[in-house]
Amino acid sequence: MSDGGGGPRQAGFLAVDSGGSGLRAVVGVPGREPSAPLESRKPVRTGERGIDPGHLLEQLLPMARALAGSYGLGQVTTAVVGAAGLASLGDALRAELPGALARELGVRTVALAADAVTAYVGALGPRPGAVVAAGTGLIATGTDLTRWRRADGWGHLLGDCGGGAWIGRAGLEAALRAFDGRDGGSAALRAAAEDRFGPLPGLPGQLYPRTDRPAVLASFAPCVADRAGAGDPVATAILRTAARHMAESAAAVCPADGEPLVARTGGLFKLGDPLLVPLAGELARLLPQARQVPAEGDPLHGAVRVASDLVTGRLTLPGDEKLLSVVHTKLVHTKGD
Fold first, then answer.
1. At 31, phi and psi to the nearest 5?
2. Are 296 and 123 in contact (CB under 8 A)?
3. Most C-beta atoms within 10 A of its C-beta, which of 48, 127, 129, 192?
């Protein structure tokens, strides 16, 4: 068989980013630009068994087959799946996904990675340092290339300090303090909350019954940043505290020796200078030995990099039972062979 250019169809890789906003996948071969991504905006379900392998496969397999066909892959031999929640909710995925990908696509090597790891690799590649990944939640990941370390990522009830849900909740608390007439309130944040959610006495009823509470809380974070940019002291203090929490997590995982790199990645940093300026200052204060650098790419870029290194035998990242594991599957006939 040949590709669109008339050459032989190659074996290649599948790279996947499964996160809180949905699932993205690309295929590729080392040394060639990967395909454009296909995307599903349905986050993979979690249940009593953790991340649902069946729901992930239901979305991924049609995408993988379509991508392989349009890209000209004869076979997908390697798959890298970066998944949110893998460390604590990934037992079923680890048990079932490698065999299913071998059966359905003929995959021979499967790497399962926490999305914090693919975020790290996307940002820094195989270099020692620390990466703060912040969106609705927040986690920091670091490595000296002998082992992985993580800090926070405990969810909006127990942690994710400085993440989008944390900022949004702090902003709404300040709005309610102003509504009550208590110290620490912000009239500007009260007005923003009423504009977004309506009369504040109705806010608990809007928020508490919802299963997507973290996302609802995080939706108020841009309002906090807007008010901070306009000079509101309470909103400014919230973002300064968020920056301190982020830097503390980075410091907890960053290697102490040498000149490690530190980067940030994730949609929360679109909040701009009201967050980025204090964060740069806190990182410099807590990690004077580290060099702050821009992220090279996102978690999907990280999954592609891991996949390319697996195919070419150049993967140097440390393995970890929960954060990054590689499984070599038995050669099986794919469906339709």
1. 85, 0
2. yes
3. 129
